[in-house]
Amino acid sequence: MFVPLLASLRRAVLLVLGATGTAQALELPLPPPGEDVVGQVRMIQSRYEDTFAAIAEANDLGYLELVAANPGVDPWLPGEGTEVILPTRYILPPGPREGIVINLAEYRLYYYPKGRDVVYTYPLGIGREGWSSPVAQTRITAKTPNPAWYPPKSIRDEHAAEGDPLPAVVPPGPDNPLGPLKMNLALPGYLIHGSNKKFGIGMRVSHGCFRMLNHNVLELAGLAPVGTPVRIINQPYKVGVGGGHYFLEVHAPLEDDGKVSVVDKHANIINALLARGDLGSQQLDWEMLREVVAAEDGLPVEIARRDPAVVQQGGEGHVADVYP
Question: Does the entry feature the keyword Ligase, yes or no (predicted)?
């Protein structure tokens, strides 16, 4: 449930940026130097037969990010004419804009093609609890269309214990969990691949690999050559600049070791703010910041206006000193 200030801001943003109509491919122009925000939030009206799973697939979104952006809407039966927010505005992940960047906390992959001022972004299914996807620096080592699947012994044992034994090999075809294509990583045992289960995209469902919608993995494989670097991060809090304003984008932290406390969340936010050496703390909207942290809806929200004097001086501000 959103408090009034954040709810009214979300509505205002949608009135400016919202649009109804068909989906658009998530190939987005890179912002000008020094800026980090791409895309725009959109809105559609659901049809009677729609579900969030179907809307997510049609719009290159993950299931959980659609749920987070639409609190209070029934994901299984939104209803005829219900306004559904499509969270297709993003703060680009921190770090170099090159190759593939996977941010586990937002169940999303970003690809920066060399020599082009665009970014492609796709939803992912990632490792579930007990089979977490790694944080690592790696690369694509091979691409295989129509792969067979050779489930490792650990997965065969797990299925056998659940009364669902697996064969030693699953041939290519509609029942293959790898879908129409796999990309091997330099991390032994980890893949980027398609899937025969659309519902798991944008959720924690895999044994550590990265699942994609089949049309997405085919597109990415056609864009990213073997050797493409892959940087895997886990960053639920992203701070960036868009149009001269500071934005904060918050996702629910992955909870493998127990629930993350509010104190820890605020500490992590402080660290994300301090990482921006050009952010003057005296301009932060602290009330809005608290609400964004509590909402965890994945939508970039303005928390400060950029002060040219602070930027020119390279000041770091005193974020930790003033946070209540």
Answer: no
- Give me the catalytic one of 193, 215, 245, 266: 193
CB neighbours of 299 closer than 8 A, spacing ≥ 6? 10, 13, 41, 69, 85, 87, 89, 249
Active site residue 159: no
Domain-ending residue, one of 233, 255, 273: 233
Residue of 56, 38, 158 lying closest to 107 (CA atoms) = 56
Strands across the sheet containing 229-233: 27-29, 118-123, 108-112, 99-103, 229-233, 136-145, 181-185, 191-193, 210-211
Cα separation of 241 and 84, whole Å? 26
Residue 27: helix, strand or coil by DSSP? strand
Residue 221 DSSP symbol = H
Q: Identify the active-site residue in 207, 209, 251, 318.
A: 209
What residue type is assigned to position 97 of the chain? R
Closest CA to 213 of 62, 39, 30, 22: 62
User: Residue 159 belongs to a domain with what CATH number?
Assistant: 2.40.440.10
Q: Model confidence over 258-306: pLDDT tens digits? A: 577 777 777 777 777 777 766 655 467 778 888 888 899 999 998 887 6
State whether 253 and 229 are in the same domain: no
Q: pTM for the complete prediction? A: 0.86
215 and 116 within one domain: yes
Q: What are the Cα distances from residue 184, in Å, to 43, 189, 230?
A: 36, 8, 11
Does the active-site annotation cover 193? yes
Same-domain check for residues 183 and 269: no
Inside any domain, residue 188: yes
Amino acid, single-letter form, for residue 118: V
Cα–Cα distance, 270 to 109 (Å, whole number): 25
Token readout for 240 is 């960036």
Q: Nearest 5°: phi and psi at 60?
A: 55, 45
Residue 43 lies in a domain: no
Asked if the model's pLDDT at residue 210 lies above 80, the reply is: yes
CA-based nearest residue to 178, from 68, 169, 187? 169
Instruction: Indicate if 254 and 154 belong to the same structural domain.
Output: no
Number of domains the chain contains: 2
